[in-house]
TrEMBL record:
Organism per entry: Amycolatopsis heterodermiae
Database matches in Pfam families: Ala_racemase_N
Coiled-coil blocks: none
Protein name: Amino acid deaminase/aldolase
Annotated ranges, domain Alanine racemase N-terminal: 21-192
Amino acid sequence: MTSATVYDLATKDLDPPLAVVDLAAFDANADDLHRRAAGKPIRVVSKSVRCRALLERVLAMPGFEGLMCYSLAEAIWHVEQGTTDDVVVAYPTADHDALRRLAASDQARASITIMVDSPEHLDLVDAALGHGHPEIRVCLELDASWRPVPGIHVGTRRSPIFTPKQAATFARQVVARPGFNLVGVMAYEGQIAGLGDAAGRRVNRLVVGWMQRRSAAELARRRGAAVREVREVTNLEFVNGGGTGSIESTGADAVVTEIAAGSGLIGPTLFDAYTRFKPRPAALFALPVVRRPTRKIATLYSGGYIASGPTGPSRQPTPYLPTGLKFLGFEGAGEVQSPVTGRAARTLQLGDRVWLRHAKAGELAERFTHYHLVLGDRVERTVPTYRGEHQNFG
């Protein structure tokens, strides 16, 4: 029995478009992340999942501790729902209402750490809450990009804190401010964790691999020095680093106490381009065939679920099952229709399903209110995504 037949059989009583999560693949991916982390705890990146039932599932597995959320409002919601009592918000917040909700809740303040990288972030919190506000847990973000020579920046544009001296200076500023407790340091190496080393031509792969090795070595030295200087100022509860794509190099850094990961649970197409690991595709969505404009083309309903990031073919969804399908180059995946061609297209009939994979892990959950959790040839249960729980964290 082919995988397509298994998913079709499991969802035979459901109308597409629909989305499934293969629990066997999801659990296998979790086991592989745990293995790769080699004993260091993994903080689950919520934006890569965006489904409370799946987050609760992985947090119950060995090796996974706490969430890394992308929104303060999201973090408060998880604490209120009892998902976890340990949340780091990975991005600074300017949400005054969420800050007031955080300050008003003893439970939330004890559970949630927000991200800061400048005195202006502290000023913003003071402006939202007023002076004399309850103590807020904060994490200092160190920029983890690679800057081999002046003027060259490889990696995501994040914190202005780059050097150990800058980290220590800001740590002293935080400690001197009433109402703040500096408990952590984070450094996300996007140029390693989020950039596949197996994509493109051989010369491109060699350049990416060389860059990532050099960057990892430089970051280990700089992050180690920064953490040592910050610890001269205050005690730290955690040092967070990494992502699904850099678990091995991040975990090898002695100062890192926990690793952030989430996309590896889902296995989107952007993570096919890595040599260090091969996650199984866990989240799929099915679209129905609604037209046969020619003998060689089948048209699917909707499907234009384009991933964030630099636009291009890599951000489109990818036809997965049946094998041998591809989008038309001049039309691609569209808002209301997505024509596919290839040998398998010739045998597709109206009402048949085509299963696709999204380019990124969590963004599929913004398109569907529910995930059908499939185990073998049956739906074990159906659970809401964030959207299905009427949650939209922007």
